[in-house]
């Protein structure tokens, strides 16, 4: 009898945010950068999936949600050959929605990057609620 090593179970599952036109900005940014960046970023995201509820130095909370269409926005911190990158995400149920990726060039996360991630999260949440409402109406 052969015993297979157990595969660690993910606590959350990474999903790329898709715009209304179907673009996946995080995926597209990673593909443009190529290796080794996309490999390191992928490994870091997988680490977060497996070990969710992490804090610094791996994950940082950027902005907390307060309303029906807002969750908490986090960042995964990446360092590739002395260059800092960030992937912004939020958690919805068991999904880790990756909404924005950028190269960090200043000490603080730029407001424009934070706002972009926040706006994408709110848009995704609105779309998700619409899908859920339609599904609930169809059940009745």
Structure, described:
The protein has 140 residues and is of the alpha+beta class. The chain has one domain. Helix content is 37%, strand content 26%. The protein has three helices and five strands, in the order βααββββα. The radius of gyration is 17 Å and the shape is globular. The mean pLDDT is 92.
The helix tally amounts to 3
> What is the general shape?
globular
Mean pLDDT: 92
Order of helices and strands: EHHEEEEH
List keywords for this structure.
alpha+beta, 140 residues, 5-stranded mixed sheet
How would you summarize this macromolecular structure in one to three sentences?
Helices cover 37% and strands 26% of the residues. By secondary structure, it is of the alpha+beta class. Strands 1-5-4-3-2 form a five-stranded mixed sheet.
Topology record:
Blueprint: E1 13-16, H1 25-33, H2 37-50, E2 59-63, E3 73-80, E4 83-92, E5 95-103, H3 111-139
Parallel strand pairs: 1-5
Antiparallel strand pairs: 2-3, 3-4, 4-5
